[in-house]
Amino acid sequence: MTTALASGAMASECGELTMAEMNWASAELMANVDKLILEEGYGCDVELIPGATTTTFASMNEKGEPDVAGELWINAVRDPLMAAMEEGRLHSVVEGPITGLGEGWWVTEKFAADHPELDTVEKLLEHPELFPYAEDESLGAFMGCPAGWGCQLSNANLFRAFDMEDKGWTLVDPGSAAGLDGSIAKAVERDEPWFGYYWAPTAIIGKYKLQMLEWETEWAGSENWDGCIVKPEQECLDPQPSSYTESEVHSIITDRLMQEGGIAVDYLKSRVFPGEIMNEMLVYMNENQATGEDAAYHFLETYPEIWTGWVSEEAAEGVKSEL
Questions:
Q1: What is the DSSP letter of 194?
Q2: Contact call for residues 146 and 176 (beta carbons, < 8 A)
Q3: Half-sphere exposure of 316 toward its Cβ, with a 13 Å CA cutoff?
Q4: pLDDT at residue 150 above 90?
Q5: Helix (H) or strand (E) segment spanning residue 257
Q6: Entry pTM
Q7: Which of 33, 214, 295, 314 has the most CB atoms within 10 Å of its CB?
Q8: Nearest Cα residue to 213 out of 107, 77, 100
Q9: 223 in helix, strand or coil?
Q10: pLDDT tens digits along 216-250
Q11: For residues 306 and 97, is the Cβ–Cβ distance under 8 A?
Q12: What is the Cα–Cα distance from 104 to 213, expressed in whole angstroms?
């Protein structure tokens, strides 16, 4: 009876909330972890709603639903999101709910270990001979994005901005997502060097432990990036060298939840997934064809040292009881 009364008190404090379950693996995992912790730890009533970046943001901004977007990549909705936050309709409770995420240029773990002196993009660009292109070994291979992807344009324009062709590089089109992933797998399994574009958190980064290179060049500003780098070549005649644009990810909530959510908001402010663990979880999901809910149970069972730091002792006991 005491337990039931305590659960009822927590539910009345937390109440009902809706949460976007975005259509990619890390966000599916995050939403299901949040749901389990909020329901079993704090007595909330959580409904998961299918979502995607632009549609979820539009619904939150215009209709106030769902209450939570746990992993919102804001570059695609930056201007309207900033306006919504300034006007008080939406709020950011966490900037960076996953550490170490973002887009950039990567090398294999073995290459990074063998060449610790080449720890920036600019240093590595002086050594195309270390990445011989299979079809012409006099050239260094830089693996870009498949045709039709937005990153194909940004990588092609950065390739021009850094005069990589004159330095002895060739820009390789992997042809497809499978081709890009396959090029990484092949290189790692054969202990061959690989240099190219990818992003995290992803199962590929987790499985093969690619290392992102730092940039010495500073970001050259929005006018260069948004007005040139991400445009087709005919609309970007003079691309300037720049680091890759920073990928910002926030946990966004509605004003209703901010005002009424109480303990749920406190929890959301506290939870940050370590990037290395998230990548490992994505490997688990990929290899086991696990759903977001399956993966959430696996995460909570496997990494209590992480999530118990996000919650009270009483909430942790409630979650462990459910497990």
A1: -
A2: yes
A3: 12
A4: no
A5: helix 255-260
A6: 0.83
A7: 33
A8: 107
A9: helix
A10: 999 999 999 989 999 999 999 999 999 999 889 99
A11: no
A12: 7
H-helix or E-strand spanning residue 200: strand 195-200
HEC secondary structure over 122-154: HHHHCCHHHCEECCEEEEEEEECCCCCCHHHHH
Is the pLDDT at 259 greater than 90, yes or no?
A: yes
**Helix-helix angle 25-36:292-302, to 10 degrees:** 60
CA dihedral for 165, 170, 174, 179, sign (positive or negative): negative
> CA torsion sign, 150 to 206 to 204 to 70?
negative
Confidence of residue 78 (pLDDT cuts 50, 70, 90): confident
Name the 3-class secondary structure at 7. Answer: helix
| pLDDT digit string, tens, across residues 106-137 | 999 999 999 999 999 999 999 999 999 999 99
For the segment 278-318, what is each residue's pLDDT rounded down to a tens digit? Answer: 999 999 999 999 999 999 999 999 999 999 999 999 999 99
First to last CA, the chain: 21
Q: What are the φ/ψ torsions at residue 97 (nearest 5 degrees)?
A: -70, -10
Q: What is the dihedral of CA 70, 203, 273, 311, to 10 degrees?
A: 80
pLDDT at 148 over 90: no
The values of phi and psi at residue 117, to 5°, are -75, -20
Average pLDDT, the chain: 94
Q: Which two tokens stand for residue 138?
A: 């006099």
Side-chain-side CA neighbours of 137 within 13 Å: the count stands at 2
β-pair type (136-143, 169-172) = parallel
Rounded CA separation 88/66 (Å): 16
Q: How far is CA 77 from CA 82, 84, 315, in A?
A: 9, 11, 34
Alpha carbon distance 123, 116 (integer Å): 11
Backbone angles phi, psi at 22, to 5 degrees: -65, 160
Q: Which residue matches tokens 């990549």?
A: 73
